[in-house]
Amino acid sequence: MTGSLHRFANPARFQRLARAVLPWCAGGAALAFVAGLYLSLVTSPPDYQQGDTVRIMYVHVPAAWMALGAYTTMALASAVALIWRHRLGDLIAQSAAPIGAGFTVIALATGMLWGQPMWGTFWVWDARLTSVLVLLFLYLGYIALVHAFDDPERGAKAGAILALVGWINVPIVKFSVDWWNTLHQPASISRFAKPAIHPDILTPLLMMAAAYMLLFATLLLLRVRAAILEHRLRTLAMARAQG
Amino acid sequence: MTAFLTLVRRDLALSLRQAADALVAVMFAVLVVVLFAFGVGPEANVLSRLSAGVVWVAALLAAMLSLDRLFQADHDDGSLEQLALGPLPLWSVALAKATAHWLVTGVPLIVAAPVLALMLAMPTDGLTTLVGAMILGTPCFSLLGAIGAALVLGARRGGVLVAFLVLPLAIPVLIFGAAATEAALTGLEAAPHLMLLGACLLATLALAPAAAAAALRQAVG
Amino acid sequence: MTELLNMGGYAVFVWSAYGVTLGVLGLMVLDSVMRLKRRQAELERLEGSAE
């Protein structure tokens, strides 16, 4: 584990790797978006029950997946930072957080816009939306905690612990919200009726998911590079102040 | 073991220097209930529909009140560092602090819960389950609170931040606790919900002290 | 084309959803790129003057 991981932990090495990979991720993301949007908006058929609003699913569901995926990235990076004391782990976690929060906001907003034509109300306390809302609070709490300390190292370490604690909490919250929903299910259907998985549905969904994932990678690389530079800037500033 | 109990006793003595301190959490919970009643209206059937959830929310919020001071005083005067170097492992220190917190805030809330419930027109057949569920749930609040308190040591605006961090973690406990109470009220089986609450308590007991200890180590070391 | 714009009567919902999505993603891209550029410029300035 140590050999391959440490190779990329060197900031200069990471910068070189990031610079090399970045154009591919960005280019791939752009292509996947164009393809995905075309598939979602133009070629995929309207749903038998939900009509054209089913197209919202193609931006909503992958966003929820990314919200969770980004959090897992955050948690894994935090674990690396805590166990192996790699600064890069902290930087990756802190860079992933705002991106994850962004996907969470997209998931919530698109979920609300999907809910209104379907259930006649903008907010439904269904398991998915509610869990995603809690996830947003976990993201915001993490960002707030990291920035609440004057010493960035302290903030990073506190954040890392919170990220792990929160990550353990995510499945528990999802389970408890599911539980809560089954108890309070109103007479009519309360869950988002997912259309049957048909290739016409699956292809745009997966294409958008790929687009989101490539975009996540692109943004993460950009932000981690910026964070490494920021660290250099801070060290320089301190050296100046003392020299 | 004796070191553990000594720490608990010491914390209790510190917290209860003024007897009023033990009542702060309870009075806050009462205030929350009063505010709900004013907000929602005095109609008994409306209030009783909400009673289970409101009592639990009130208890949760009240438990959050004094959290940021859980470790603060010891951190400020250096005794936290001494505890970290002492014979008691840090997770045990965290557990002792959480226990003291529960004794000072949780237990009075458990005792007051039936009164709060009755103020919200809860039918009496829900009261025993409510108390039982709170016995399982309030320690979770204290344990989760200890994690939050340890994380924000030395942070700016720690007070607000603690609540913001701990409340999402406490949601499962809230859901299962309120569900257990509701089940008793509607004549359904409360046992499954109580078992889930018990599982939450066991999991929190096992994991929270370690997480709090990790956070404390960062603050001290 | 009108079908595309009309979305079976649900135009406001579908297009708002896609609008929000692309808007938030666009903002994130902009912020991430600007962030990196700013720091690169700042570093260049500092290390340039250090010579």
Describe this structure in words.
The complex is a heterotrimer of chains A (243), B (221) and C (51). By secondary structure, chain A is mainly alpha-helical. Chain A has helices at residues 2-9, 11-43, 57-83, 87-119, 127-147, 152-183, 199-242. Chain B is built from nine helices and no strands. Chain B starts with a helix and ends with a helix. The relative contact order of chain B is 0.15. With 51 residues, chain C is mainly α. Chains in contact: A-B, A-C. The A-C interface holds A 37, 41-42, 46, 51-53, 55-56, 59-60, 63, 98-99, 102, 105-106, 109-110, 113-114, 116-117, 215, 218-219, 222-223, 225-226, 229-230, 232-233, 236 and C 4, 7-10, 13-14, 16-18, 20-21, 24-25, 27-29, 32-33, 35-36, 38-40, 42-43, 46-47.
Helix-strand topology string of chain B: HHHHHHHHH
Q: Roughly how much helix do the residues of chain A carry, as a percent range? A: over 70%
Class derived from helix and strand content of chain A:
mainly alpha
On the 0 to 100 scale, the average pLDDT of chain B is 91
Name the largest protein-protein interface in this structure.
Answer: A-C, 35 and 28 residues
Main sheet summary of chain A: none
In short, what is this structure?
Chain A is an all-alpha fold. Chain A contains seven helices and no strands. In chain A, helix 4 packs antiparallel against helix 7.
What descriptors fit this protein?
heterotrimer; B: mainly alpha; C: mainly alpha
Question: What's the layout of helices and strands?
Answer:
The complex is a heterotrimer of chains A (243), B (221) and C (51).
Chain A: H1 2-9, H2 11-43, H3 57-83, H4 87-119, H5 127-147, H6 152-183, H7 199-242
Chain B: H1 2-15, H2 20-40, H3 44-64, H4 72-77, H5 79-85, H6 90-119, H7 127-151, H8 158-186, H9 191-220
Helix pairs in contact in B: 1-6, 2-3, 2-6, 3-6, 3-7, 3-8, 6-7, 6-9, 7-8, 7-9, 8-9
Chain C: H1 2-6, H2 11-50
